[in-house]
């Protein structure tokens, strides 16, 4: 059986890859400014400044778009937790530390822009939004407990999570039916894609270093994957709406997030796995097959529910 690499060994061996991909990211990322994406002329004072406080009729967003925007924003808000997790996994030394700082700064920009948009356009209740932010950040997030939680688990998780976030932001922008929101969230989704590529490349290099260990960690993450917004107020209600209306559902998670990355890593084509890796890969294949069946059942159920909704609207 191949020797298991320690966290320190992995960090040392992957450091040149981290540096190379940091430089790649800095060369590809484009500078942008949140204030350029906000319709400031739509803004009005709230009651504390002599204006009028928020009321539901002021929002031009549908219930689904509001649920998706708030879920995405609160997810971005929990940045201190994510920064801590990355710093503990990667260390703050050399290119690892530079990446953690750069990634944190870019992600913070997303929350700034989304909150400015929602408050200026009065799309959601700002008091409820702030209370939810306080509650969610106080609870924070941490990696799901699993045996041997390590750097490889972390790299696999953030690869899938960044891609999932890109899909969710992009579809949320479309659901808002507002060209300003669409442009803003497309810009944020482009950042998330570059972040995903950084992590995907690091994980690919880790697979080459320790195939069995890496495939086992990837399988663990796929089977225990949770979106980082899980601890948000009303998360389950909002997640049902988001899935029902096609912003982010199990089929998208499988077809647009998991499978493209697994294909890129050539997980099911590798010939360098030992017994542990082969067992993990078999488990992964069975899990993905079952997920496909679950996705099909969900789609059938959703189609029936949406048809009933349309029938009720026609009857009214």
Notes on the structure:
By secondary structure, the chain is mainly α. It has a single domain, classed as Ribonucleotide Reductase, subunit A (Orthogonal Bundle), CATH 1.10.620.20. Helix content is about 70%, strand content about 0%. The chain has helices at about 5-30, 65-75, 80-90, 95-120, 125-140, 150-175, 180-210, 210-225, 235-245, 250-265, 275-315. Helix 1 (about 5-30) crosses helix 4 (about 95-120), helix 2 (about 65-75) packs across helix 9 (about 235-245) and helix 6 packs across helix 8 (about 210-225). The longest helix is centred in the last third of the chain and has 41 residues, at about 275-315. The chain is globular, with a radius of gyration of 21 Å. The termini are far apart.
Please describe the topology of this protein.
Elements: H1 7-28, H2 63-77, H3 79-90, H4 94-120, H5 126-139, H6 151-175, H7 179-209, H8 211-223, H9 235-244, H10 250-264, H11 275-315
